[in-house]
Amino acid sequence: MLDDQLVTEDDLGSQFFVSELHVGMNRAAAAASQVRALNPRVAISVDMENILLKPPEFYSMFDMVIATDLDLASFSMVNTACRFVNKPFYAAGSHGMYGFVFADLITHEYVIEREKSNIPTQPKAETMTRSILATNAKEVNGKQVELVTKREIYSPINLANTSPLPVGQISSRRRKLQVPPLLTCLRALWEFQTLTQQSVPSHSHTDLEIFTRLATEKHKELQLPPETLRSDFLRSFLQNVGSEIAPVTAFLGGQLAQDVINVLGQREQPIQNFLLFDGDDAKGPIYALHPIFPALETPIV
Q1: Where are the beta strands (DSSP E) in 163-237?
Q2: Are the beta carbons of 145 and 139 closer than 8 angstroms?
Q3: Which of 194, 231, 265, 273 is deepest in the core (most CB within 10 A)?
Q4: What pTM does this model have?
C-alpha cells in the first residue's frame, strides 16, 4: 500500500480502517494493521513516498497495480510506467454518488466456459479489440462444455480519455441517449484539473463557468445529444466532487476486486475498459474507449 497523504477528519466518514486516533498519521500506515487483519496470510508492506517519484522499475515487482483517486496526469504517469514493465493497471475513483473503474491490461488472454453449440467456434476477430484464439471441449455432468480462449487488447488511460465512444454506441440516437453524462463530467473534471492545477472546482463563478464550458465541449466531442447534459446533473456532480460515500466506494471496490481475481485467474471477460457508476440511477455501464475511428482498422496503442 502506497500513500503519501495524511489522515484527515473527512476520511473518518468513508474509511473503515482509520479512527480519530489516526488523524494526522500517514494514511497507509494508519490503515495497515486493519488491512492485515482481513487476511493474516497476505504480506502487506507500507510505502509513504509520493507515487510520482517512483521509477518504472518499482512496478516490476508487482503482479498488478491499482491507483485510486489521482488526477489524470498522475494516473497516466503510473499507467505508462506499468506498460514499460508490462504490468496490468487499474485506475479507480469516486465522487460522492459517482465513480469509475478503468482497466489497461495491455494484452490479456482468458478462458470462458459455455455450453457447446452445434455450430463450431472458429478462431476470429470478434471486435476491434477482442479475438478468439482457440477452443477446447470437455464433458461436465454429461454435457459438452466449450472452453474458448480469447484475447483482449487495451489502450492506456491518456488515449482512452480522448477516444470516441464505440461506433455501435453512437450509431443511433436511442443509444446516444443512454450514455450517462457522467463520462462527460469526468473528462471535464480531468481537463479542469490540468488547466487550473486545482483538485476540484470551487463554488466561485469563475470555476463553475470554466467547468460548464469544458463539460459542454467534452459532450460535443463525444457526439452526444446536448439535452442529455442537463443542468441538474452538472449541479449534482459538482456538489459530489471530492467527497466519498461508503456504499459507493464499496460497490466500486467490489467490482474492481472481482475483476482483479478473474484477471489473475485468466477466467471470464474482464472490464473493457471504462466502467461508470451512477449511484442516482444505480447503473454501471461499461464502454470500450479506444482510439478507433471509422477510417482506421486497428486501435492506436
Answers
A1: none
A2: yes
A3: 273
A4: 0.90
* pLDDT tens sequence across 44-81: 999 999 999 999 999 999 999 999 999 999 999 999 99
pLDDT per position as a tens digit, 152-173: 999 999 999 999 999 888 889 9
SS (H, E, C) 258-279: HHHHHHHHCECCCCCCEEEEEC
Distances (CA, A) of 68 to 45, 95, 151, 257: 17, 12, 26, 13
Q: 73: how many CB neighbours lie within 10 A of its CB?
A: 14
Q: Residue 270 and residue 89: Cα distance in Å, rounded? A: 12
pLDDT tens figures, 182-221: 999 999 999 999 999 998 999 899 999 999 999 999 999 9
298: its cell numbers:
486497428
How many whole angstroms separate alpha carbon 172 and alpha carbon 179? 12
Which residues have CB under 8 Å from 265's CB, separation 6+? none
Q: Is the pLDDT of residue 297 over 60?
A: no
DSSP SS3 for 153? strand
User: Residue by residue, what is the 3-state secondary structure of 93-148?
Assistant: EEEECEEEEEEECCEEEEEEEEECCCCCCCCEECCCCEEEEEEEEEEECCEEEEEE
Residue 294 has pLDDT above 70, yes or no: no
